[in-house]
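tool_log.txt
---
The assistant was asked to compare two proteins side by side. It first ran the structure predictor on the initial sequence, then on the second. Raw inputs and outputs are pasted verbatim so the downstream comparison step can read them without reformatting.
(1)
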Amino acid sequence: MTRAVLDLRGLDAPQSATRGIVRRALTQAPVEFMDDVVLVADELVGNAVTHAGEAVDVSLDLYPWGTVVQVRDRDRDTAAVPPKPEPAGDEDVNGRGLFLVNELASAWRVQTDEAGKRVVAVFLYRAGGTH
């Protein structure tokens, strides 16, 4: 397993920093997964900043079978994260982030931890490189 962690506290552009570390960490992963993992990590950090005021950190765990992305924030309200996000309407300005996470990740969940909560997204690599 390879692990990459980025402390996001106090960064002016946490989503940009997240995209960079994810792209660098995924150099050994199947290329067809990179954009999905980058987009999900970006969305999770954006949600943490928008709804909790700040993302604490982002981590990636890389395995031969897939990648696990975790984003932590200080808000302990896991009920604020819907387990089955609905697609946003055509006129909605927001509401697409968790729907994208749900569609792109193989699995995801939210849980409390010592800092507040973490959202975990898992990407499984499959034979033939598709998911």
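(2)
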Amino acid sequence: MIAGLGIDLTELARIEAAQNKNTGFANKVLTPNEYAQFTKFSGARAVEYLAGRFSVKESYAKAYGTGLGQVQLQDVETLDDDKGKPVITRHPYPGQALVSISHTATLVMTEVILEAQA
């Protein structure tokens, strides 16, 4: 049963500007494991990764029903599996969290579904 649904759109340019202005931005947004994946990318792909993970955290907080604040950026971790599929590996909700990430040239869109435990 679906317990929560959240979506988010984030402008890639906004995240790129935040990272360029403050090189610690990625460390603030990303968990250590996410940051390790992030460092393997450069250029546009690095911006997409960072923006995608930021957007997932926004979507998750909306699905959780609180928005960011009660759910902190470091509370939600999304890592790519062996095939490159994003998987939420750590989060505060006791059930399952599913995620989808999609990019255009200027935007990233994410959706998070929280499923209740059976």
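---
observation on (2): Helices lie at 12-21, 25-29, 32-38, 43-64. Residues 43-64 form the longest helix (22 residues).
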